[in-house]
């Protein structure tokens, strides 16, 4: 992993794209696949995850000088679990329907590698403020990818968006495969493909721009 | 039909096929993509998962129904489950180290990974939300573990063969693994309709 950059803004930007947890580090894709057949559920899940990563990174970082190294992982898991319980209780109280649909996947935020990864990889050795932003960035980067995938899966699979019918594609034959498990795998693979292609293209443009000014970089 | 009427063996087979914890529920994806490069290591990890998943879901069932429910502490289930899992993994690791060094060498490196494997926690959470009985839970835990192992070993076998194949450079590694997983998931959907457990 690259050395942590100085300012808060660059920490945020790095987590959003350059080290995006989903398509660069391939972390936490269990729930990325499970909830993305409905945009609404994805949104709720994403907000829950942003809340958990940001605050647990903050807490882990604030406690880092009081935590003995040997029980470090255990403390991190307990901090994360505490925040996930808050998310769960909040959902049960205010959005019982969605809470029911998400079911066990809310609890699985605890073992989502992103949350653990940020706590262990960044928060354990940085100040609380910076860790908070780092966790926030990781959460937002993750949610962004999930939303993009959900925005393809729901319309193609169910012909709805955010739960509303789309008039324009009323005649559309539903792709059932998009709603069930394989659709999730395929969409994520395609997303990784496109994202990597774009990244490489940006790199090549930047390099071509430095070397010889007027030539468009050749495509493969 | 009530959930409690389903025979534990039916649940076991359903957990391997139609309700495969990895291919239908997406749990345990991270180690699935990271460790599935060689058949040998994936068998090691798979065995460890079968063992831990079976034992922890039964343990968690007992803890949930005999401690949390009587005291109305259900909302603490996440913390309690994760502690039980972490403690169990730790104890097993120490026990294996004492009993058999060769087994420790084969499984030891995979055990710490397992605490954060979402399939393990997922198994416990699913059996609570589906209100299984103790026997059903044992069947579900064992079946889920076997299903996970089946998927990762099959995947490793395919990836070993895939080494020689040419893949679009951007799809190399996780990308192509996800596509293979998708095709495998399609194949497992062929089982659906044979039995239903939730």
Measured as a percent range, the helix fraction of chain A is 55-70%
Order of helix and strand elements from N to C terminus of chain A: HHHHHHHHEEHH
Strand arrangement across the biggest beta sheet of chain A: 1-2
Q: State the end-to-end CA separation of chain A.
A: 29 Å
Total number of strands of chain A: 2
For the sheet with most strands of chain A, the description reads: 2 strands, antiparallel
Low-pLDDT regions of chain B: none
Compute the separation of the termini of chain B in Å: 10 Å
Shape of chain A: flat
Note the beta-strand portion of chain A.
Answer: under 5%
Low-confidence stretches of chain A: 1-5, 213-220
- Describe the sheet with the most strands of chain B: none
Can you write the helix and strand succession of chain B as a string? HHHHHHHHH
Largest interface: A-B, 42 and 41 residues
H/I helix tally of chain A? 10
How is this fold's topology laid out?
The complex is a heterodimer of chains A (220) and B (198).
Chain A: H1 8-18, H2 29-34, H3 39-62, H4 72-94, H5 96-102, H6 104-107, H7 113-121, H8 128-158, E1 160-161, E2 164-165, H9 176-179, H10 181-211
Antiparallel strand pairs in A: 1-2
Chain B: H1 8-16, H2 29-35, H3 39-68, H4 77-99, H5 101-107, H6 111-115, H7 118-129, H8 134-162, H9 174-189
In short:
Chain A is an all-alpha fold and 220 residues long.
Characterise this structure.
The complex is a heterodimer of chains A (220) and B (198). By secondary structure, chain A is mainly alpha-helical. Chain A has a domain at 8-150. Chain A is 68% helix and 2% strand. Chain A contains 10 helices and 2 strands, in the order ααααααααββαα. Chain A has helices at residues 8-18, 29-34, 39-62, 72-94, 96-102, 104-107, 113-121, 128-158, 176-179, 181-211, and strands at residues 160-161, 164-165. Chain A has a two-stranded antiparallel sheet with strand order 1-2. In chain A, β1 (160-161) and β2 (164-165) form a beta hairpin. In chain A, α3 packs antiparallel against α4 and α7 runs antiparallel to α8. The radius of gyration of chain A is 19 Å and the shape is flat. Mean pLDDT of chain A is 81; it is low at 1-5 and 213-220. Chain B has one domain. In chain B, α3 runs parallel beside α7 and α3 packs antiparallel against α8 (134-162). Chain B starts with 7 loop residues before the first helix and ends in a 9-residue tail after the last helix. The model of chain B has no long low-confidence stretch (mean pLDDT 85). Chain B is globular. Chains A and B meet through α2, α4 and α10 of A and α2, α4, α7 and α9 of B.
């Amino acid at each position: 992993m690259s050395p942590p950059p100085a300012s808060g803004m660059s920490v945020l930007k790095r987590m959003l794209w350059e080290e995006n947890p989903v398509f660069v580090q391939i972390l936490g894709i269990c729930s990325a696949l499970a909830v993305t057949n409905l945009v609404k559920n994805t949104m709720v899940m994403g907000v829950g995850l942003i809340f958990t990563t940001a605050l647990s990174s903050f807490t882990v970082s604030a406690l880092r000088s009081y935590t003995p190294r040997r029980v470090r992982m255990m403390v991190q898991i307990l901090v994360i679990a505490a925040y996930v319980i808050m998310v769960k209780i909040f959902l049960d109280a205010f959005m019982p329907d969605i809470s029911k649909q998400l079911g066990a996947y809310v609890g699985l935020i605890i073992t989502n590698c992103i949350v653990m990864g940020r706590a262990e990889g960044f928060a354990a050795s940085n100040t609380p403020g910076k860790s908070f932003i780092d966790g926030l960035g990781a959460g937002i980067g993750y949610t962004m990818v999930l939303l993009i995938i959900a925005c393809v899966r729901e319309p193609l699979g169910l012909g709805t968006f955010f739960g509303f019918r789309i008039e324009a594609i009323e005649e559309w034959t539903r792709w059932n495969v998009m709603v069930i498990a394989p659709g999730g795998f395929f969409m994520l693979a395609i997303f990784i493909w496109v994202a990597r292609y774009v990244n490489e293209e940006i790199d090549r443009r930047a390099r071509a721009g430095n070397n010889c000014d007027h030539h468009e970089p050749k495509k493969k | 039909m009530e959930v409690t009427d389903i025979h534990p063996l039916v649940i076991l087979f359903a957990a391997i096929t139609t309700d495969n914890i990895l291919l239908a529920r997406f749990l345990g994806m991270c180690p699935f993509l990271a460790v599935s490069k060689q058949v040998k290591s994936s068998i090691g990890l798979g065995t460890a998962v079968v063992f831990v998943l079976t034992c922890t879901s039964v343990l968690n069932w007992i803890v949930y129904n005999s401690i949390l429910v009587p005291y109305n502490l259900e909302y603490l289930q996440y913390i309690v489950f994760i502690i039980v899992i972490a403690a169990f993994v730790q104890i097993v690791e120490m026990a294996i180290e004492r009993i058999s060094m060769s087994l420790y060498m084969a499984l030891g490196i995979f055990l710490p990974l397992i605490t954060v494997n979402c399939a393990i926690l997922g198994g416990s959470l699913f059996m609570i939300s589906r209100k299984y009985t103790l026997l059903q839970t044992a069947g579900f835990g064992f079946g889920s573990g076997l299903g996970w192992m089946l998927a990762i070993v099959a995947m490793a076998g395919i990836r070993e063969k895939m080494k020689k194949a040419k893949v679009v450079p951007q799809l190399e590694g996780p990308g192509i693994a996800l596509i293979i997983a998708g095709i495998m998931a399609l194949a497992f959907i062929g089982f659906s309709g044979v039995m239903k457990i939730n």
